[in-house]
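Run: sequence + 3-isopropylmalic acid -> complex structure.
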Amino acid sequence: MYKIAVIPGDGVGPEVMQEGIKVLEAAGEVANIDFEWVRYPFGAEHYLATGEILGEDALKEISGCDAIYLAAVGDPRVKPGILEQGILLKLRFYFDQYVNLRPVKLYPGIPTPLKDKKPEDINFFVVRENTEDFYVGVGARVTSPKQREELEVKRELYELKFGIDITKVRSEEIAFQIGVISREGAERVIRYAFELAKRQGMRRVTSVDKANVLTHVYSLWREVFEEVAKGYAEMETEFNYVDAITMYFLTMPEHFQVIVTPNMFGDIITDLGAQIQGGIGLAPSGNINPDGVSMFEPVHGSAPNLKGKGLANPVAQILAGALMLQELGEAEAAKLVEQAVAETLRSGVRTPDIGGSASTAQVGSAIAAKVKELAENGGD
Ligand code: IPM
Ligand code: MN
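>> structure
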């Protein structure tokens, strides 16, 4: 029996969540797993009605759950950042979910924008650090009159001393944001990536950074990667700059097996990853604390323009459910769901974003039925 905190959220969130639960219930039925779904209303509607974003009480309660199943938050009526930071990032940080696991996998028959690339060419994991880097929220805008005065003094100094015209950087108003990498924070996620590679029988771990420019933070990241790598002599290792890896995603995705990346670069390259695997409607994600409460969600957002139309692709949500099963230790059931997704997609039951004409609910029901069918055949 697993107790799962459910946050359907905004936009298409509730629609895809319904299908995610439908498929997990089907998997539970055939694999003898019981779920208790504990629903939470957090999102735009709840915030607009009550002013509450995500309360401390709820966080404490969720601590008693086995996992969190989240769909998407974000709504045009709420200023960007409020719900994303107050719910999604809050949960990631509160539960110290330091691994953001994002598989990039092209399923058979799904069109990829990459010419001549096949399912066997696009099949790797991105392990995104999930609690540090530019997401720590350290920074400020400097705009007070006093600070402005100080800048004036500095401006004169700079001009006299160095001949630099500081007005070119619009010094009357500046903002800065600091990225933080800690040795321990880098170590634990890099180690997770190597262990994942080992478990998956993969042989190459690629580290992403921008150590040629952001020298302070990413030289530490590199150093830690090199140290951790020493414990895995059987693994091939390499460094890629983040700008370069975006090219290689397009030109040679078959090269990659496990990629480990600081938080912000991971955010960016996994949207690209989602596209090469056939679109954002297919990309799942796990926010994992191996010793705590983990959270599973699609990479995509709430897509408010699609809300209520039955057009949203539920596959990312369903695959996030498979990742959840895997993390709960239900590997068989996880495999069953993934296989059911692959076969349903191959049979052509798809939403319009990937060239089909089925609705959100039809895709969910077809996958749930396939789960049962596969289990029955497997049992013969
Ligand atoms: C993601 C999202 C989030 C992120 C946003 C919504 C805060 O883009 O999960 O990739 O930047 O991590
Ligand atoms: Mn993102």
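>> summary
The two ends are 26 Å apart (CA to CA). The chain has a mean pLDDT of 94.
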